[in-house]
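Subject: Protein record for review, amino acid sequence with backbone structure tokens
Why sent: The fold of this protein is of interest and is recorded here as tokens.
Notation: Tokens come from a learned vocabulary of local backbone shapes, not from coordinates.
Attached in line: The record itself begins immediately under this heading.
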Amino acid sequence: MSHSHTTLTARRKIYARRIGMIAGLSALTGSVLLSGPSAQAAPPTPPSAATARTYLSQLTVQAEGSSDGYSRDKFPHWITQSGACNTREVVLKRDGTNVQQDSSCAAVSGDWFSPYDGATWHNAADVDIDHVVPLSEAWKSGANSWTTAKRQGFANDLTRAQLIAVTDNVNQSKGDQDPAEWLPSVSSYHCMYARMWVSVKHSYSLKVDSAEKSALSGILNGC
């Protein structure tokens, strides 16, 4: 056996021991000490623009309902998803890059790119999890008649393009406005945003008002 081969073998053994020690420490502390790269701001991919146009044509057009009786408490969130991790923490991990979490699942470091405004943040406190279709908008579009369990599922939906990590004050400026009233400042994201919005409304059989449908149609036709 050559000297170079012996050295390489020794290095591999040392590397394996280090990985084992790090994994053991991670298990002991419950911390995520190793994290592979992940796509930034990547909720489940919505249907294509063509499919979204079809979905939009299938939505019931009706004047927006009343917000009477609405409360965010009627859409319980953020719920526990697994272990100590709630929905917000799961999305922060999913949408960030090199996110590290402590034993309580809180993100202690990482980078988050907000596709709505093109900003990058390095502190999870600067990031909100946006409900693409806002809770109040859903309430006025049909969710007022849902069970609390269904509203909880909507508010914590990780299987559809309903939750996305974005700049906190951008999320707050959006409020409960629909695409006829508010769109991301990054115009190149409008098509994706419209596809996300329509796919969520279609999945939950929520209604659209005429101005909202017109705005979405215009965006999707230009995709």
